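Figure 2 data, in text form.
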Amino acid sequence: MSEEKDLQKKAHDFLVQTSRTFVIPISQLPSGLQETVGAAYLCMRAIDEIEDHPQLPAEIKSKLLIEISKLLRNGYNRENLLKILLPYEASLPDVTLFLNDWITLCPETIVDKVLDATAEMAEGMAKWVELDWQIQNEADLNEYTYYVAGLVGTMLSDLWKWHDGTETDKELAIAFGRGLQTVNILRNKAEDAERGVNFFPDGWEFEDMLQFTEQNLKRANLYLADIQTTSIRHFCEIPLAFAHATVTALKDGKEKINRETVTDIVTKIVGS
């Protein structure tokens, strides 16, 4: 097996480990695009794992994120990235330590876009680590969710254009990512509270976050209107349908959708 094939298998294994939900829509993409989207997602997941790390002190998280951001923006190379990561090898998860591999899997013709988006995400996350995730108002919520999820949407839009010229609205792409993220914020409120984090703006209750989420999901529906390529459309439709179904479940007092609902959604979108 070639080195690239080995890396692709490694990436697939990590996708399954880190986001089983994401593996479902990515499987709908054609060869080439599938591997690129997977690698780009893992680049961002590597950064996300630093922000979410349960043991690393905030000052270390911020330092790491800023150093990685600067490197990705100002002449990335493998050796310098290893120098940043290796002092924390015992603490960081493998998906972060293998960031060089995920970057290697991104084709040369699109890797700069992936690096730019990942760098911006890391810089934004560092800011919110330093602020201790103190989201005081809707503007703060918009900014935070832009960095952690809206950038995923805009990066995907870049990948669609790179793949076959598909043009999408970047603002709607941000809403797409933001809507999916705030569904998770709704779902995980109690779990976040246990670790001392609250992503709800001051004075907001469940209904306020629900309304914010539904507004973004409506805009995410509009994002799909520009997508004519069937495989890309299916990729976007699946997580969006999961999000809508999860909102319905939350309204009914359930924490999440069950496996049967997941299967039904996928079958309805892509067929049996």
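Caption note: The mean pLDDT is 94.
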